[in-house]
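Thread: Newbie trying to understand structure tokens

Hi all, I'm a second-year student working on a class project, and my supervisor (Dr. K.) asked me to get a predicted structure for one chain before our next meeting. I've only ever worked with sequences, so writing a 3D structure as a token string is new to me. If someone could post the tokens and maybe explain what I'm looking at, I'd be very grateful. Here's the chain:
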Amino acid sequence: MAVSSDGNKRQRRGRIGLSEVRSMAPGATIWDAGSGAVPGFGARRRASASVSYFVMYRTAEGRQRRFTIGQHGARWTPDTAREKALAVLAEARVHGTDPSAERRQKRQAPTVSDLCDDYLKDADAGRLLTRRGAGKKASTIATDRSRIERHIRPLLGAAKVSAVTRQDIDRFMHAVADGKTSKREKTSKKRGLSIVRGGKGAATRTVGLLGAVFTYAVKKGMRADNPVTGTVRFADGRRERRLAEAEYAALGKGLASASEPAKPRVDGRAPVAGVWPHAIACTRFLAFTGWRSGEALDLRWKDVDLARRTARLADTKTGASVRALSHAACDLLRQQGGGASDALVFPPSRGNGRMSGFPGFFDRIKKAGGAPADVTPHVLRHSFASLANDLGYTEATVGMLVGHKGAGTTRGYIHGADAVLLAAADAVADRIAQLLGEPRGQGNVIALAPAGRAVVS
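---
Reply by user tm_fold:
Sure, no problem. This is what the structure looks like when written as tokens:
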């Protein structure tokens, strides 16, 4: 044994074996030597009992580098570490690569979580354009963010973007479908509760978002291909449901019941609170028009031209849209009482934003009439379109009424609805009013807040 200038004992003869590793003193470094030794391969013990293996090599530019193989233990023994040292030397000498630099680059490579941060940042800034050439809507970004936080980060966030494979995506999809990300947690809102269930529908839609995120990664040069491409997803599970006549009648009964004044409880406690009148009006409006619920809840008085029986929506799921309004819809809007140009037609019970409680109000309305649990505002939309088709209107006409994508690019230059569309809107709305048990011109009037407003029930 020889002693180095720094006082550390360095082994000069014989290959490194288990006995040499176990007998190393704190701070000692030993080198492989003798027959079958690997040049530059060694082991080092720090002040603690841990021993790490390493190999020294030179880059193509002649710079000396140290590559740390790993700590002595279950995975790394003198023999397995020696084999790894040979592989590292081969990479450096034969292929001219720098293994240490490549490892460092891999460690510093962006993770899926980093990728999602960049994706959301560009989405918020309006730099992610849709097929219409416009930035993503705030509601879409909010949904994307929710899926990223609830599913993508927990399961894939730590993975390197360049290392994700199609098999990883497949495992991710099945994990979400099996409920591996399901949880219940409180939100920042008072008594707020977030319930994440997972399931096949959530898995399919989240994999769709992952496809967009990795397409973004390809555009940014973070990888050459999209690992989501070719993934076979679950069927979405959505079905195009329409109301039967009896279900329309049940909804009508619920609307009428929800419009009645609050009744005292039989146990003498405080009266049961009624449904917010503007939510009742909005439900009727959705039934009479087939609009998306978000379009109605975001509708402002400046968007409405009652004289022309037209609403012009600047920003919908499919871009700017002009909608014909039936007499029934116009009567309902007039009974809302009007308001400032920028005021919401269907205001919330408190605050100035959108009526966030509308889904809950809608559920109470349908329960009051005994309507099926799977009836949603989207079902009203599909029912309107289906009923219009039953009445003999063409697909193009129906598309114009409800704002379907591709209903006509020239609509962006038209500021009013023509007689054909108005007649169609009237025919469909009148039939729906009849099915709800609310013939045109009949109904009860209920007071709305603020004072002076009323809505036909």
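A couple of things are worth pointing out once you decode it. Residues 245-456 form a domain with the hpI Integrase; Chain A fold (CATH 1.10.443.10). The chain has three domains: 2-107, 112-219, 245-456. Feel free to ask follow-ups in this thread.
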